[in-house]
Structure formats: C-alpha cells, structure tokens
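Support reply, case 0932

Customer input (verbatim):
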Amino acid sequence: MLHQNDTQVIVEPSVSGVSWAAVAAGAVAACAVTLLLIAFGTGLGLSVVSPWSGSGISATSFKIGTGLYFVVMAMMSSAIGGYLAGRLRNKWIGVHTDEVYFRDTAHGFLAWAFASVLGAAVLATPATSMLGGVATGASQGAANSAAQASGPMDGYVDTLLRSNNPGQSPTPQNSSPNDSRAELVRLFATSFKSGSEMSAADRSYVSKVVAARTGLSEQDADKRVAEVTAQVKSDLDKARKATAQLAFWLAASLLIGAFSAALAATEGGGLRDGTWGRN
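Our regenerated output:
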C-alpha cells in the first residue's frame, strides 16, 4: 500500500526520442527524389533546373514557372522523406499521444533539415556523380573551355567594337587590339560593379577608342556607347529583380517542404502505431 507521503515514480521509456536511422533514411530518400525530379524537369525542357555544370538556372533565366516547379519538387520530395522518417522510427511505449505526435513532427522536420543540408552539399554538382568515369575523357576539354570563357562584360564590349566593315577593322596607332579590348572590359566591369554609372571622362575615352577601332565618327561612336550603356543598365536591373524573385521562391519552397515533411511524418508515425485515422 502507498502512504500519503509516498511519491509515485514515473519511469521514462529507454527508447530514444529520436530515431536517427529513420531520419537519415528519409533525408536520403528526399534527396534522391529531388534529383529524379530535376532530371524529369530537364527532360520536359525546363533547362533552368538542369543539373549540368555551367548551364541551368540563372538570375536572368528564372521564371515563375520555375518557381512553381521548385515548390512541387519540395512538396513531393519532402513528403516522401518525412513519411519514411515517421514510418520507420521506433515505437514508443508508454508515451502520451500528444508527445508521440510532437516526436513524429520533429522527425519529419529533422529529415527535411538533413535533406536540405545534404542536398546543398551533394546535389549542387550532381553531374559529377552522374557522369562518373564517362566524363574523365572530356574533363580536359571542359577545363580549357572554362578557362577561355567570356566574362559578363565581354558581350557588351563586342557590341561596342563591332566594325561596320567586318573585312576591315582599324586599330589605334601604337596600340594592340587585345590591350584596348581588355581595358574596355575592365572599365565596364569596374564602372557597373557597384551599380554606378560610367563617369563622363571614362565615357569620352571609350567613345574615342570605339571610333578608332571601328572607323565610326565620334558622334556615331558616342551614340553606340550610350546605347550599350543603357543596355547594360537595363540588363543589370532585370538581373536584380530576377534574383529577388529567385530568393523568394527558394524560401517559399523550403518552408513548404518543411511543412510537408512534418505533416507526412505524422501520418507515417500514425500508421506505424496503428493510430492513424482514429478519433
């Protein structure tokens, strides 16, 4: 018999509150499904979600449809990973129903978090794993191509220095065409890096170089410089707006993925214990 001063001792179950094996299994499954959906999106022509290095999504190519596809990928992969994390976890005996519900939700969230970190580390360069030894023979050529890749301002400088007579390309005296071109690239990159405009002195100098390189009159050269400068500013503005949209959709997909994983884990855990759907 228990006396009035006796205290009832509650023994906690010896089973851990977190089944890390189930969490890891769910995270790996979520990453695998994400990779599958990336490949599927590429097959549908959504090149902005291409896994291949040097191609795919960029600030200027991002569209709303791509953001919606990000959300769909996050929902499907996170739901599968969360469900597995809840269904494969250990069964807790002697734990209150509300505590079981909380632990299942936590398992789904942990599976999503693990998958997010794993995906950032692994899926950022899935082409390396996909190609394997097949890419070994082409690696040297790819490296050479990357070394010769143009910078972001080279296209604009090409437009500036385009001659009206392609067969004849006048150059300034005592000056190398490559030197003047490299100087213009550096000048454009420095001027527009911080979002500021080119100074009047720099613009006048660029107009003189363009006139000497292309054979245009100083007036036509100055007009071309003005057009290219306006195009650079317009493209930079579009890139900033697209970057903001990209950040928004990525954040939305992550939040929706976390919610989907937690919700699916509660269903998986309920089915594991045979309590799902009971009132």
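We compared this against your earlier run and they match. Two observations from our side: Residues 47-57, 126-149 have pLDDT under 50 and may be disordered. The first helix runs from residue 20 to 43. Please reopen the case if you see a mismatch on your end.
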